[in-house]
Amino acid sequence: MSENRWYAIKIHAALRPQIKYIAAYQVAPTSAITHIAPIRSIEPWKDTDKYVLNFAEPAKEIPHIVLVKGSGKAVQGPRYTNRETIDRATTLDDIWPSET
């Protein structure tokens, strides 16, 4: 994220206009969402069906939103939520609760 952008990201076309922030999930051993950045623009990435997200400002470290061991919530690809949910969350279960 040092380039103030994140690239080669798959984004659902219908959701692209609604995306205002991107949150970064770090895999094990961290296993947590650790940073968030506001999006300045979204542009096509090369000759692919992916996109580059240009940040409006550098990503900021946030209190880590951790994976609860055994919950099966590890981020495997794009997931969508809103900024208010991220701000309130302490675990990934707070963002994407289990379906009952």
Verbal overview:
- The protein is globular and about 40 Å long.
- Strands 1, 2, 3, 4 and 5 form a five-stranded antiparallel sheet that branches.
- It contains two helices and five strands; from the N terminus they run βββββαα.
- The longest helix is centred in the last third of the chain and has 6 residues, at 83-88.
- The protein is 10% helix and 36% strand.
- The chain has helices at 83-88, 92-95; strands at residues 5-9, 21-26, 32-44, 51-55, 60-66.
- By secondary structure, the protein is mainly beta.
- The termini are far apart.
Quick structural overview:
This protein is mainly β and 100 residues long. It is built from two helices and five strands; from the N terminus they run βββββαα.
What topology does this entry show?
Blueprint: E1 5-9, E2 21-26, E3 32-44, E4 51-55, E5 60-66, H1 83-88, H2 92-95
Shape: globular
Q: Assign the structural class, choosing from mainly alpha, mainly beta, alpha/beta, alpha+beta, or little secondary structure.
A: mainly beta
Number of helices: 2
**Annotation, overall tally of beta strands:** 5
Q: Report the order of strands and helices.
A: EEEEEHH
Cα Rg: 14 Å
Percent in strands: 35-45%
Helix coverage percent: 10-25%
**Unreliable segments (pLDDT under 50, ≥5 consecutive)?**
none
Query: What is the end-to-end distance?
Result: 36 Å
Mean pLDDT: 90
Main beta sheet strand tally, sense and closure? 5 strands, antiparallel
